[in-house]
């Protein structure tokens, strides 16, 4: 009760600061690029301060709290935390960016990142919770009765977290650049430092509770401009998620409206069916790429360690199921809305005088071009940073957990004290943040694309291990090792081709790899391949020990 | 030994061969949920692909009629105006095309060819000026093309002009047929042409309906599986 009161107090103070800031901000004006923007900066600082304060109130006191929040979160709260953890810079900024640039192809990300939850729910969520372990790597280590598998999976989990975080740090960099007018590199470094400090202080319990507050703030920040845009331009504003449909049709038909953008341009465009038509040649994306991206993101969603880990923070297996359902609903509130920004962004920026805009910032630019009040635009930008922060903090914890719990504690130092484990968690978190920031500085792709690499990696390593491990008791250690090796080797080859391509090195078959095994969606092939390899190798080797089969049958599938 | 094999068999779990009553029911529910999920997502898009037809924009039809005449050198002034409007529409569509020298030069050449002789010098100066000053007066060009009331196309003219001081520009270029195919042909069907709540139907289906369906699948699954668990005495509250 006391905590709720304190949170309410913080929220009230935060909103009061916003109101006080209005007159100052009204005078500061708005520009699409450059320059230090005072009030968005203040909103951002206030928002981070709020998160840190609440994190401090819920400070983790032991490893159990740090890893799994003491199993004290309700399904509703966990669902909100799943949504907050999920609604990253990729969702907040990246989806609209990819739809703005690639039209209907971008919807494969929307569908992939939500449809994966259905798979997650029906084949994994409660089963994983019933298996009764702390982390995804615990599950794999026990199910495949191999400490080597545990270590290998922990390394994969760390790679997934790093890949996922790179996109988030990119988003943080872009928004810090917009708000503070700083260089991209400095923006990434400052953002990384702040999120690292915050994660180290609060740990998982604080993070999870913060994530509920963060969800509320960032969804409000995302929805308000959507209502304003539809209202201002005379579309159906009460439900902007439906109201923007006419904007899409206006873009297709090239209908001119009587409205003017903040830069004084008419809100009109030439007929642009390529924005909405499926796999339009003008977008450079085809049918196969749509399907492959969608499928890869779906199986990747069901294999992300930091998402699976959320099932351990609920008291009961049924709560794990309901937390997925709540989580999906909270996520969809944002995902139903994200295409609106790409549609308004498309029509408002269609005048050639606007020039090329940074796609990853199109959400904020759209609000600016639509003459949304600068205070609300600032709030939106701060929300984007909060989205990245909430995800990064969860990922750093997941990665550090894998490092400390699954490698250090479980394999190398089984008798390590709680204090030693906590120290390793902090070292792991710091090391990951440094690595991620260094990679983010290379600017290897759009936010959504960088994050999609993590999904493909999860989709061809963790997902097949869980899928086969849960639903086939015959799967054994040899099959698991072969499965993980297949997924990892394919991933490594794809990444080598990608990095080589980025630096102008031509490898044999690069066109084939670039199309069929693109880093954004290679799991469409590698995922099913890893499943087949697991099954085949398991069949030609000895069955797993009876204890493993017994635990799976009794604990997970209720065999008496 | 026999007992060990027997107990091993008792604990065998295979999704495709569920043995206990609970597993059979659970698998049936999962299969139904995954089937709905897969058909709704991938089935719909396969259908969309199967029934699509290449649908050219009106500009493409103009291009098909006029471009051969331009290549053969038999185009009239009106042909040049028609193709210039097509080129201009493309440049207004895409920032990438605003950087296409071939297209800009072809547009400039087409307008030049349609411009009355006594106005060609003024046009040349305007084209040169547009390279540095996008606020150059393009009223006469808009009037010539008959787009003076079209704010979008008129606004794009300064971005479509290429300087022509020291060279003869061509109204055709090897890149242009490829650009036309890429930007002016779309793949449409009744699913893309129908409207629902203002959306093209397929767009609504993917962006709104599929997400709603996923929520419904999850909701129904949770209710159903809770009942199944209760029926089979699993997942008690103190678990």
Short synopsis of the structure:
The complex is a heterodimer of chains A (560) and B (239). Chain A is built from 23 helices and no strands.
Written account of the structure:
The complex is a heterodimer of chains A (560) and B (239). Chain A has 560 residues and is mainly alpha-helical. Helices cover 73% and strands 0% of the residues of chain A. Chain A starts with a helix and ends with a helix. Chain B has 239 residues and is mainly alpha-helical. Chain B has 2 domains: 2-52 and 191-206 and 222-231, no CATH class; 56-185, no CATH class. The longest helix of chain B has 31 residues, at 21-51. Chains A and B meet through helix 6, helix 10, helix 11, helix 12 and helix 14 of A and helix 1, helix 2, helix 4, helix 9 and helix 10 of B.
Which key terms come to mind for this protein?
heterodimer; A: 560 residues; Sodium/glucose cotransporter; 0% strand; B: mainly alpha; 2 domains; two-stranded antiparallel ribbon; 4 strands; 68% helix; 5% strand
CATH architectural group of chain A: Up-down Bundle
For the largest beta sheet of chain B, what order do the strands appear in spatially? 1-2
Number of strands of chain A: 0
Any idea of the CATH class of chain A?
Answer: Mainly Alpha
Number of structurally distinct domains of chain A:
1
The unreliable regions of chain B are none
First CA to last CA of chain B: what distance?
34 Å
Largest sheet of chain A: none
CATH topology of chain A: Sodium/glucose cotransporter
How widely separated are the two ends of chain A? 42 Å
Q: Please identify which CATH superfamily of chain A we are dealing with.
A: Sodium/glucose cotransporter
What percent of the residues of chain B sit in helical stretches (DSSP H or I)? 55-70%
Helix % of chain A is over 70%
What number of domains of chain B?
Answer: 2
From N to C, what is the helix and strand string of chain A? HHHHHHHHHHHHHHHHHHHHHHH
Gross geometry of chain B: rod-shaped
From the helix content, strand content and strand pairing of chain B, which structural class follows?
mainly alpha
Q: What's the helix count of chain A? A: 23
Give average pLDDT of chain B, whole number.
Answer: 89
Give, in order, the helices and strands of chain B. Answer: HHEHHHHHHHHEHEEH
């Amino acid at each position: 009760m006391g905590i709720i009161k304190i949170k309410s107090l913080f929220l009230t103070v935060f909103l009061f600061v916003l109101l006080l800031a209005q007159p100052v901000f009204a005078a500061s004006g708005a520009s699409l690029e450059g320059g230090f923007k005072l009030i968005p900066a203040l909103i951002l600082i206030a928002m981070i301060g709020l998160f840190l304060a609440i994190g401090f109130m819920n400070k983790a006191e032991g490893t159990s709290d740090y890893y799994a929040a003491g199993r004290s979160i309700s399904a509703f709260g966990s669902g909100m935390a799943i949504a907050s953890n999920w609604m990253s810079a990729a969702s907040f900024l990246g989806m609209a960016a990819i739809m703005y640039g690639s039209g209907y192809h971008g919807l494969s990300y929307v569908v992939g990142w939500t449809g994966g939850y259905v798979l997650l729910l029906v084949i994994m969520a409660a089963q994983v919770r019933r298996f009764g372990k702390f982390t995804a790597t615990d599950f794999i280590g026990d199910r495949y009765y191999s400490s080597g598998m545990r270590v290998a999976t922990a390394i994969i989990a760390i790679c997934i977290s790093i890949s996922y975080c790179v996109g988030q740090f990119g988003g943080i960099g872009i928004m810090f650049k917009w708000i503070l007018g700083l260089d991209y590199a400095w923006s990434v470094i400052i953002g990384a430092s702040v999120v690292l400090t915050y994660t180290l202080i609060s740990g998982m319990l604080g993070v999870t509770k913060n994530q509920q507050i963060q969800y509320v703030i960032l969804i409000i920040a995302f929805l308000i401009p959507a209502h304003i845009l539809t209202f201002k331009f005379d579309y159906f504003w009460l439900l902007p998620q439906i109201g923007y449909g006419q904007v899409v049709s206006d873009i297709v038909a090239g209908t001119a409206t009587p409205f003017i953008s903040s830069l004084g341009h008419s809100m009109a465009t030439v007929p642009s069916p390529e924005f909405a038509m499926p796999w339009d040649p003008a977008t450079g994306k085809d049918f196969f790429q749509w399907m492959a991206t969608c499928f890869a993101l779906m199986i990747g969603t069901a294999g992300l360690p930091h998402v699976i880990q959320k099932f351990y923070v609920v008291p009961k297996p049924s709560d794990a199921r309901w937390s997925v359902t709540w989580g999906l609903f909270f996520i969809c509130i944002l995902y139903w809305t994200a295409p609106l920004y790409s549609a308004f962004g498309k029509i408002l920026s269609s005048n050639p005088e606007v020039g090329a805009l940074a796609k990853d910032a199109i959400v904020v630019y759209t609000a600016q071009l639509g003459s949304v009040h600068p205070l609300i635009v600032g709030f939106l930008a701060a929300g984007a940073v909060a989205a990245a922060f909430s995800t990064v903090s969860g990922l750093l914890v997941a990665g550090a957990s894998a490092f400390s719990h699954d490698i250090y504690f479980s394999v190398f130092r089984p008798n390590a004290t709680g204090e030693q484990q906590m120290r390793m968690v902090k070292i792991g978190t710091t090391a990951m943040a440094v690595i991620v920031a260094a990679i983010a500085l290379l600017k290897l792709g759009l936010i959504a694309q960088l994050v999609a690499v993590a999904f493909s990696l999860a989709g061809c390593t963790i997902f097949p291990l869980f899928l086969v491990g849960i639903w086939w008791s015959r799967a054994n250690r040899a099959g698991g090792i072969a499965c993980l090796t297949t997924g990892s080797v394919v991933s490594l080859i794809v990444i080598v081709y990608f990095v080589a391509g980025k630096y102008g090195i031509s490898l044999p078959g690069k066109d084939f790899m670039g199309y069929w095994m693109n880093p954004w969606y290679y799991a469409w092939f590698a995922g099913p391949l890893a499943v087949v390899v697991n099954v085949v190798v398991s069949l030609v080797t000895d069955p797993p020990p009876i204890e493993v089969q017994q635990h799976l049958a009794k604990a997970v599938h209720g065999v008496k | 030994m026999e007992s060990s094999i027997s107990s091993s068999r008792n604990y065998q779990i295979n999704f495709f061969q569920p043995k206990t009553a609970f597993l059979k029911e659970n698998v049936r529910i999962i299969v139904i949920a995954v089937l709905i999920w897969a058909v709704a997502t991938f089935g719909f898009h396969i259908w969309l692909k199967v029934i699509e037809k290449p649908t050219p924009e009106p500009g493409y039809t103009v291009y098909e009629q006029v471009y051969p005449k331009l290549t053969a050198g038999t185009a009239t002034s009106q042909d040049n105006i028609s193709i210039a409007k097509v080129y201009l529409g493309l440049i207004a569509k895409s920032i990438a095309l605003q950087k296409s020298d071939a297209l800009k030069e072809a547009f400039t050449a087409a307008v030049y060819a349609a411009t009355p002789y006594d106005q060609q010098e003024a046009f040349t100066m305007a084209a040169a000026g547009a390279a540095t000053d996008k606020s150059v007066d393009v009223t006469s060009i808009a009037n010539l093309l008959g787009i003076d009331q079209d704010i979008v196309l008129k606004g794009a003219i300064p971005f479509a002009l290429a300087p022509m001081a020291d060279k003869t520009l061509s109204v055709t270029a090897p890149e242009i047929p490829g650009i036309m195919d890429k930007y002016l042909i779309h793949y449409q069907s009744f699913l893309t042409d129908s409207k629902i709540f203002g959306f093209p139907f397929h767009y609504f289906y993917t962006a709104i309906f599929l997400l709603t369906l996923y929520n419904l699948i999850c909701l129904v699954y949770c209710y159903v599986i809770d009942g199944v668990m209760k029926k089979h005495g699993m997942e008690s509250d103190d678990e």
